Structures are given as structure tokens and as C-alpha cells.
Automatic annotation (TrEMBL):
Similarity-based family: Belongs to the enoyl-CoA hydratase/isomerase family.
Stated name of the protein: Enoyl-CoA hydratase/isomerase family protein
Presence of the UniProt keyword Nucleus in the record: no
Keyword Transport assigned: no
Keywords, alphabetical: Isomerase
Organism lineage: Bacteria, Pseudomonadati, Pseudomonadota, Betaproteobacteria, Burkholderiales
InterPro entries membership: ClpP/crotonase-like_dom_sf (IPR029045), Enoyl-CoA_hyd/isom_CS (IPR018376), Enoyl-CoA_hydra/iso (IPR001753), Enoyl-CoA_hydra_C (IPR014748)
Molecular function per GO: isomerase activity
């Protein structure tokens, strides 16, 4: 008999257990008290990569909901983490493995995942948000893949799922330019499952989670497994994009990207490129 995982080890994620086997993951609950957006620092990045294995083997969980607290779903990587990745090979190698595990662990988690995205949705949180089996966005959400604005290739989830969800033309437009996608537009182009008014977001996520929890667990999980073979087939594309992203963390553009974000100005990247 599989035992329930010890969720108390997670410090950056708030774990709430609800009736009918619904497990709620809340990012940034502690940060929202300080009126900050949820950022993926060293601890949260690691926890986001590993928790899906615990959910997968948790006999008490049928469905997982992931959402953000406070002003938004997720604000992307903490700049101190990004700077450490740029400066330290050991950190860069560790975070590369976590980024790889985050994507594959969400894909391979047998339990259905529902995401509820509001406000800004960027970075590691967005990985889980868009790879969720049912992704729900507030109509006024702002989904942004910020990689090229930072000066690195669009890695983590971007290459594996954006072209599949919204087509290559839209994927290239938004990934190359880092333009924000509203929840309404994200639903229109197929990037998310549903867009709803923000005040209805959490309620809709729980409504869908309840329907999934009440359904045939074998049928739902096996359907998810089969459908996610589309994502597994894109594994080589994802691996290449992640390697290129992390190569960028050793180059000069990311230093300028971090500096420009800290100084709240447009980046001035070197126009030359060795590629």
C-alpha cells in the first residue's frame, strides 16, 4: 500500500487538501502577504520540479489544482536566482536539471492537473500552468514567455507545447517578441482551455476538478497518458531548446537582460551574434 507523501517538506508551496481527493497547490501565499508577486527562487524552483512525483504516487489525490496567490499567478524567476545561474556553473547545471524535471514530471504525473492563472503568468509557474491538463485563465491575465527579453532562448516548456497548442505562427510571434497574451486572447488562439472573469476563476477550477475527481480515474488517467504522447514525441525539441536556453545563461546577453530588468529600462543587447 502506497503511503501519503509528506507534504510538510514543501516550504515555498502551500498545500491544501480538499474533499474528493482534490489537492490545491498555491504559489506565493507567503509572498502575497508582503504584496509581492510569486517569484521562483531557488527553493520554489526546486519544489515545483519535484512535487509532481509526490502527487503522482499519492493514493489520496485524484486531481491537483495549481494557482497563484495575491497579484498574479507567477512572476517568473527571482532575479537573484537568474544571476546565480549566470555566474555559477554548478547552480546552472542544477537548475537545468530541475527545469527538465519540471516539464517531464508534469507530463508524466498520472493525476489530472488543473491550473487557474490570473494577473501575470510568467516563468516556472507558467510551465505548470500551460502544461496542465485543463488550463484556465482569467480574461485579464497576462501570459508572457519572458526568455528572449532576458537574453536567453525560449526553453523550459515553450518549444514543447506552444506550437502544439496555438500553432507555429502564433508561437513564434509570442516567443520571439515576448508580447503579453491576455486570457481572452489565449483562449481564442487555443493556448489555454478556458478564459473566465477573474472573480470566477478559482470557482471554475474547483468545479472542473470536482468533475474530474468524480469520473472514472482509470479512464481519465489513461486518456491523459495517451494524449501526452504528443508532448513526449516533442521531447528532443524540448531538450534542444532547454540546452540552448542554458547556454545563453553563460553568455553576455543575460547579464544585460538582468541589469535592464533591475533598472527598469529597455535592454541594450549586443547586435553581434556568433551563431
Amino acid at each position: 500500500m502506497t503511503s501519503t507523501p509528506d507534504y510538510s517538506k514543501y516550504r515555498s508551496l502551500t498545500i491544501n487538501h480538499h474533499d474528493n481527493g482534490i489537492l490545491e497547490l498555491v504559489m506565493g501565499a507567503s509572498q502575497s502577504a508582503n504584496k509581492k508577486l510569486s517569484t521562483a527562487d531557488h527553493d520554489m524552483h526546486r519544489e515545483l520540479s519535484t512535487i509532481w512525483n509526490d502527487i503522482d504516487r499519492d493514493p489520496e489525490t485524484r486531481v491537483a489544482i495549481i494557482r497563484g496567490e495575491g497579484k498574479g499567478f507567477s512572476a517568473g524567476g527571482d532575479l537573484s536566482l537568474v544571476q546565480d545561474m549566470a555566474d555559477d556553473f554548478q547552480v546552472r547545471a542544477r537548475v537545468w536539471r530541475e527545469a527538465r524535471d519540471l516539464v517531464y514530471n508534469v507530463i508524466n504525473c498520472s493525476k489530472p492537473v488543473v491550473s487557474a492563472m490570473h494577473g501575470p503568468a510568467v516563468g516556472a509557474g507558467l510551465v505548470a500552468g500551460l502544461l496542465a491538463d485543463v488550463s484556465i485563465a482569467a480574461e485579464n491575465a497576462r501570459i508572457i514567455d519572458g526568455h528572449t527579453r532576458l537574453g536567453v532562448a525560449a526553453g523550459d516548456h515553450s518549444a514543447i507545447v506552444w506550437p502544439l497548442l496555438c500553432g507555429m505562427a502564433k508561437a513564434k510571434y509570442y516567443l520571439l517578441l515576448c508580447d503579453a497574451v491576455s486570457g481572452t486572447e489565449a483562449e481564442r488562439i487555443g493556448l489555454v482551455s478556458l478564459a473566465v472573469p477573474e472573480q470566477e476563476l478559482v470557482g471554475k477550477a474547483f468545479e472542473i476538478a470536482q468533475r474530474l475527481a468524480a469520473g472514472s480515474q482509470t479512464a481519465i488517467r489513461w486518456t491523459k497518458y495517451a494524449l501526452n504522447n504528443w508532448l513526449r514525441m516533442a521531447g528532443p525539441t524540448f531538450d534542444a531548446s532547454l540546452a540552448l536556453e542554458f547556454m545563453g545563461f553563460s553568455g553576455p546577453d543575460v547579464q544585460e537582460g538582468v541589469a535592464s530588468l533591475r533598472e527598469r529600462r529597455n535592454p541594450r543587447f549586443d547586435p553581434s551574434c556568433p551563431f
